[in-house]
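Expect chain and fold; see below:
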Amino acid sequence: MHSSYSEVEKRRKEILQELDERDKVYVKELAEKFGVTTETIRRDLDRLESLNKLKKIFGGAIKTSHQKLEWVYNDRESINLEVKRKLAAEAAKWVEDNDIIFLQAGSTIAQMPPFLRDKKELTVVSNSVPIIFEFAQYKRNGEFDGRVIQIGGELQVSSMGMSGVLAQEMLRDISVNKAFFSCGGFTPENISTFQSESAIMMKSLLAHSQKKVLVADASKMGVNHLYKVTALHNVDMIITDTDLPEEWKSHTELSSLQWLSI
């Protein structure tokens, strides 16, 4: 039996009321509360997100506000968004209290902030405008007690990230213990991207990072773009949504690489 329009609207209104009280809601809990399926709740959250009433995260949703800047990525960057959220949630598990981390501009890493705001004394460095504004909102609301450092420079609209000479100069003076980044593609030999400015920024970033974590979905695997960033074996960990391919296992230089499949 289908729910009436009034029942659906009433449920969605109550979801927003619950979100207003708790700041975060979960699909399974909402399904149990309202006696509907998780698929029904996901449709509710999809609709509410389209109206700018909340922001979906993996397994649920968090608050948004009319004051918050909403960033619209192009079609390429919106592909596999649910997978990117899962990858971001896994990546965030490797961040510890008191860490100094770099979050690279891009749609995959931009999913990480909601999973990091509970970390204590965390220092976040980023060239991503959306990431900086998200943490700024957390700080304004008293939800994040860490430091936020923005890398300045020239704006790349495609990634909503800063790059160029000014950004590179800032990176030279910064050292982080963990860097989380994505890419345009990766093969057993190389990590690459389709933008020269992004490649230069990523090289500078990796040179000043103790632990390098590549976060990329399976659609990037086996893809080789024009601009090389670094050899794959130079990263410490890959977080992706597929297992290490059998044909890649013959590359002995990858033996020290930690491959994590969600």
